[in-house]
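Input chain follows. Return structure tokens only.
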Amino acid sequence: MHNIEHLSLQGPAGILETRLHRSNLSDPEPWVMLICHPHPLYGGSMDNKVVTTLAKAGGELQMQVLRFNYRGVGKSEGKFGNAEGECDDLRAVIAYVKQIWPKGRLVLCGFSFGAYIAAKLASEMPEVKALFTIAPAVLHYDFSTLPKVACPWFLVQGDADEIVPPQSVYDWLARTSQTIQRIDFIGATHFFHGRLLELKQTVLDCLQKIVQI
């Protein structure tokens, strides 16, 4: 079971509105999932259905799960930071996690715009144990400049995505030197309408492999 705690963390641009789905399991080295939401200027928030679906997947494995609003979204202070600011927001959330669980094992997840935020931090932090990028916005943010990601990287893409052109993702995957496990959702749109339960199960299956490593 999880209790959802409403937290106000100090971020670099002010308060960050955060939800902690706290597992009741007592574990000095817990798995901690952090979830990055889609673009804040196009309605993205931590209440996005893909974000909450990812949180449910982590919760089923009794992970500690944090989702948060970037600066300028919801009750988070500040204004849009053009990805760099949002990366700083995630750094602040990770710093909080390290204070609470110094031996926590991190899983970073991101959807669309949030996929870049999660991937950038995973490329900087060798202690990250797994990375999930859902419909990554590769046309708008340059994933090709990211350093090598050391942890297992899972990429989920719908082939009927109307926001992120699927071919742009496939082309980038063909060029990149990153080691990425691609998971195709045939017929799925950007927001995985009608496919959220399937998405949750897919992420859960991948997470179960990770926690056994």
